[in-house]
Write a structure and sequence with these properties.
The structure holds 2 protein chains of 2 kinds. Chain A is an all-alpha fold. Chain A is built from 10 helices and no strands. Chain B has 10 helices and no strands. Chain B is globular, with a radius of gyration of 18 Å. The chains are: A mainly alpha, B mainly alpha.
Chain lengths: ~260, ~210
């Protein structure tokens, strides 16, 4: 092998190993795709970048928490939370000096069978469902007394006129019990119950109205503890279907014996 | 150069695309030359084989440990295995050598300058190497084109380092004979092998 041949072989090998042209080489995109598919989470180009710094993240979290807390307290103050949540909010916020309604303070009349607002309706139902007779007044009176479960502290402001003092109903009740049955029974009790504003009509039937007058007195007794029933409710248990109450203050104890002026 | 490749390799192993691209651009050209030279009868599949190779490389890249020569040896081992698989499909099918057709279409034989320039071009040089017996061509490519030492080339071929050296030596001697034949000829188209087979290779040449 001559030196010239060696040089030619060397040149041939150098040419075979010559550097390729700069730039992308065939198959680069395919290989890169395979690389990305293999290591998608570690790839710098495919990694999602965020502009949130740790400080910004903390601030955003704190702001979100503050908004949620403020909204919750507002809802609790408005009594808009469910009963259980409202009760818990009441307990928790009370420890920090914030007074919010309890879970049962905001119930609507009719939602609960023992709700004071339903008292009048219950007594009225009893008065309507019980036929005229000797036991009618007693039944209505019993219903009025049994369903009285709320203490006097819950009396609505509007009720203070009907019960200027808590003894008014008791007085009317005692009068109804002590007055002998007769044509004058109803007017007497009605006059007491209405403070003299109601006038006895005298058209009531003798036997039935005696009991009615008595029940009306019992009814007056129940007003001592009558909570926050509205005028309509009180009117309901004051009228048993046979009597019409003309005045708000005259409806107590005016069953059957009182007619509006 | 070594340091930059090592850094790129480390970055690629960590999932950095730029590092992977740097490694790819350093290896892919010689990989394609290797595949096209040894699989010139399968020239159309050279890029497909390379793509399959890189899929395997990317899959196991994180588990690789070694230096530049180790990495290149690993890549070429995978590529050679894929090449063998592709060749098995056409093991017994005689194929023509593209380089022979290229040589047959050369310009005027008296254009010596043009012949020399073409001879030393990369493609022409690879075509000449491709005319060697397969084991010799493989050893010459791995040792002088890819740049592996005998030990790493042996890893790729599955032979001993001594066997690789012997094959490489025989390959160089064969290349010299081809060059002398060319120099002794009156024209540039005198590149036919000494055995007069014109480079035709059959499946039985495959390992």
């Amino acid at each position: 092998m001559s030196q010239q041949t060696d040089d030619r072989v060397r040149s041939l090998l150098e040419a075979a190993a010559a550097p390729s042209e700069a730039g992308p080489v065939p198959g680069e995109q395919e290989a890169l795709a395979a690389f990305r598919a293999t290591v998608p989470n570690r790839s710098g180009r495919t990694r999602m970048r965020t502009h949130l710094t740790p400080a910004r993240t903390a601030a955003a979290t704190a702001l979100s928490a503050a908004l949620i807390l403020a909204g919750s307290v507002s809802a609790a103050a408005a009594g808009a939370l469910p009963d259980s949540a409202q009760s818990k909010a009441h307990d928790v916020l009370q420890t920090v000096g914030v007074d919010v309604p309890t879970g049962t303070d905001h119930g609507q009349a009719g939602e609960h069978p023992d709700h004071p607002a339903n008292h009048g309706a219950d007594v009225s139902l009893t008065a309507h469902s019980t036929g005229p007779g000797p036991d009618h007044g007693q039944a209505v009176s019993t219903a009025a007394r049994d369903k009285t479960t709320v203490d006097d502290t819950s009396v609505a402001p509007g009720d203070t006129e009907a019960t200027p003092n808590n003894r008014h109903g008791t007085t009317v009740s005692e009068l109804a019990k002590s007055t002998e049955p007769g044509p004058s029974h109803g007017p007497t009790v009605a006059a007491e119950a209405s403070g003299g504003k109601a006038r006895a009509g005298g058209q009531g039937t003798t036997s039935g109205d005696e009991a009615h007058g008595k029940s009306g007195a019992k009814h007056g007794n129940s007003d001592e503890t009558h909570p926050s029933a509205d005028a309509g409710s009180r009117s309901d248990h004051a009228t048993d279907g046979q009597t019409k109450a003309g005045e708000a203050r005259g409806d107590h104890g005016s069953h059957g014996d009182t007619q509006p002026q | 150069m070594e340091a930059s490749f090592a850094e790129a390799l480390a970055a690629a192993r960590a999932g950095d695309e730029d590092g992977f691209v740097a490694v790819f651009r350093s290896v892919q050209p010689t990989l394609l030359r290797f595949l096209r030279t040894l699989g010139h009868d399968l020239a159309e599949d050279a890029q497909d084989i390379a793509a399959e190779t890189w899929v395997r490389v990317t899959r196991d890249l994180a588990k690789f440990s070694g230096d530049e020569h180790g990495f290149r040896a690993w890549v070429f081992t995978i590529a050679r295995a894929r090449l063998v698989d592709a060749r098995r499909a056409a093991a017994r099918r005689p194929v023509s050598v593209d380089a022979d057709a290229e040589f047959a279409d050369r310009a005027d034989p008296v254009d010596v300058v043009g012949c020399v320039e073409e001879l030393i071009s990369t493609e022409a040089a690879l075509a000449t190497i491709g005319r060697l017996p397969r084991d010799q061509a493989e050893a010459v490519l791995l040792r002088y084109v890819v740049g592996l030492d005998a030990a790493h080339a042996a890893t790729v071929t599955g032979k001993t380092a001594g066997a690789v050296r012997v094959c490489a030596h025989r390959g160089l001697r064969r290349l010299s004979e081809l060059v002398e034949q060319r120099d002794g000829a009156t024209g540039c188209n005198a590149h036919a092998p000494a055995d007069g087979t014109r480079g035709e290779r059959t499946g039985k040449d495959a390992r």
